[in-house]
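seq:
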Amino acid sequence: MKFEGITSFSPVAKIVAVAVIAFGGFVLFNNSALAAVGDVTDISLYDGNGNGKIDEVRVSIENTLNTTWTKNGTPAFTAESGDGGAAITVVSSSFYSTQTDSPVILSIALDENDADLTTSTAATAVALVYTQAGGGGACAACFTNGSVELAGIATGDTGAGNTEVDAAKPVVTSATFYDATSSDGKLDIITVVYSEDISAAADGSADWAISSAADFASLVEGSVVCNTAPSAANECDYNFTTATAKTDVGDLTLTYTAGISVVDSAANTANTIALNSASSPAFADGAAPQIKTATYQDTDANGKIDQFTLAFTE
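struct:
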């Protein structure tokens, strides 16, 4: 670096100049230096029990000096179904991390029984709002380190301080079997719907397997199409064939083993799950009964047909 008009530096001046340059580089190239203590640096959404609903929000607070944070009274957290949507009940707020961590992490619990909390694990499922109490470190109902209060969190995703991040895995919300190809009384597709949009997979069959102990013969797996036409953005269509004419589920089981075909946009991979008549969710029947056999009889042996017997696939 060249300083015009200055031909020499004292030792003290050289130290000061180096310090200024170093600090300037730290500010320019270290993003954490841009956040002040008390600022919100991350808001992540979680589905703790894996039922497809966001039940916890974790808030990260900048605490580069490792000051001690405390909770005063009942801080004014509220939640919305999406930005600006219906209010969702906040059950509690507490420390998730230790109170001197950097960052300090808070845990905000939501009421899963609230009718306005939809089945969705997407980043848009819930918006968290925090209204500052005022008074700085002396606030009566807030999170504070004694000098500053937690920064406010506004509705509307406009920056790190109020943008929710998806930390929840996609969860199966329904699984329905069909006799879709030719309505021949043989099941041939299972549509699995997830709690959010998933990655596109033209054939994710390596992660899936179908089985039956007794009710379905000659099961052959076809393609497994996820978020690719004709499946919707939050669906996987499992295609298969069987030699058995039967349109109820019986002992059919479809197993997904956590792999590459069911991943959301935040790289959260769905858990392994076995879907059958007793799982949660259980298979739903989307296949209409079909005539399996038709026979006729002359029951009184008078040479005239007087009875037809139809056997259906369920």
